[in-house]
Amino acid sequence: MGQSSDILDEIKRGKISPVYLFHGDEVYLIENTIASMIESLVPKSASQFNLDVFSNPDVSVDEIISIAETYPILADRRLIVVKNPSFLLSKKGADLLEVFLESKEQFRSGNFTKSASLLAKALELEFDEFAEGGLDFNRAIDNFKSKYEQELSSEDIEFLDDNSKSLTSHIDIFTNSSNSSGLDRLIEWLQNRTSSTSVLIISVNTTLNTNDRIVKVVSQVGRVLSFARLRPPSNVMRDPAYKIISDKLKEYNKTISADAFAELRNKTGNDMGQMFDELEKLVTYIGDRKQIEKRDVEDVVAKTDFERIFDLTRAVGQRSLPLALANLRSIMKKSDDPIKILSMLIRQIRFLLQTKLLFEKGLLKQDMTVLNYNDFQQKFFKKLSSELIAILPDSDKLNVLKQPYPLYISIQQIKNFTVSELIKAMERLLEADIQIKSGTLTPELVVELLIVDLCSKSALSH
User: Fold this and answer.
1) Which of 7, 96, 305, 393 is least surrounded, with the fewest CB atoms within 10 Å of its CB?
2) For 161-171, what is each residue's pLDDT tens digit?
3) What is the pTM of this model?
4) CATH code of the region 231-301
């Protein structure tokens, strides 16, 4: 944080470098620094004409240079922000899953050539290898599915199995210019640029080698700042992240205990972005209390998408719309595909309905709700009869009795719902699925309206 504060202080004093390069794993800190720089460098009244932000990894160096050399309109300078450009990142450094999801979106839009080029990049294949569609192609598909097994939805898998092969005929192998040539042009331009009316900010969400040419050149003509993951010291009170989190909580007139912060740090893998994502939920959860305690972090902060879905359905069951929306926003930041979120919601509501019906039929016993998870596994789950399991569908994704943790969580949550409410919720989920597929509303809005309805007692009672 110290160096980024120095840069912001320099800008306030009028000392502005022509180019900034930010790199590292702390994405939140990078984005926060960029947002502060935009606010300082470009007046809101002039931002429409003098601010260009590129988040598409395929942005070309020529386009960046062209805009940087365009004279600003009614302002002192033009600001260009380039995030995770493919010409700078190695293939391993790029977020291949995001590239894949963009490929899927382009396919839906009928832009097959664009979809093919993005899929080739996601699979880490040269365009000619992709076009052949042979052994290397098939192996790349299998490796991709294996690597992102936890993140890919059933729809993603279906896209890879059913549509990827057809895209091999749409690839344009003649546009596969190398990353290095684009990087060479950028370096040459940086070394010889004469314009002083533009500022270029480049950010990459991975750590670059200090020996990289781009790092050396930008160090000579501008500023390079590493946002490496903050190393936690043994004493929590000396952790720079603890101060950052504490300062943020002052906005809510809240504090966090050292034990609670240590638990938050452990559960988020010391990722500042994830910590900030969880703060909103924690602040909502503790209500009027002034301090976040360790038990609050244990109750609220989850590690996986499915655990976050459990938190979301628990908030829905409590009819707590603020907490449900806070959970939804947290999930959206981690998995920005609303269709995947809807799929996970359908899965959990289905599991809740199955569990509720099994209890009402007397096939599950009420006394198991007081068991902790370890006792639940040993004393109950492992003793489930094959006949009982066979009552429900065979697929693990459709049968709550086949996985211990989803069943355990569902047992804890069913007291918040009646059977009729869960049936109505499933109907509402189906309606949302149709709305997304028909394109009548944006997927994000569909999911948010869905959560509002699910938190409404009246909406589920009609």
Assistant:
1) 393
2) 888 888 888 87
3) 0.48
4) 1.10.8.60
Secondary structure element (H or E) that encloses residue 89, with its range: none
The 10 Å CB-count burial string (b at 16+, else e) for 184-212 is ebbbebbeebeeeebbbbbbbbbebeeee
Instruction: Provide the CATH number for the domain formed by 2-89+179-226 in this structure.
Output: 3.40.50.300
Burial of 306 (0-12, 13-18, 19+ CB in 10 A): middle
User: Hunting for tokens 């919601």 — which residue is that?
Assistant: 345
pLDDT by residue (tens digit) across 336-390? 577 878 887 888 889 999 999 998 888 887 666 666 766 777 778 878 888 888 8
CA 56 to chain centre: 16
> Which of 402, 381, 407, 372 minimizes the C-alpha distance to 390?
402
What order of strands is seen across the sheet that includes strand 198-204? 51-54, 78-83, 198-204, 19-23, 223-226
Q: Does domain 333-461 have CATH number 3.40.50.300?
A: no
Q: Which of 109-113, 191-195, 216-220, 230-234 has the highest mean pLDDT?
A: 216-220
How long, in residues, is the chain?
A: 462
CA nearest neighbour of 401 among 417, 383, 430, 381: 381
Instruction: Collect all residues with Cβ–Cβ distance below 8 Å to 425 and sequence separation of at least 6.
Output: 349, 417, 454, 460
Number of H helices, E strands in the chain: 24, 7
Which of 388, 402, 392, 454 is CA-nearest to residue 426? 454
Question: CA 439, CA 306: separation in Å to the nearest integer?
Answer: 26
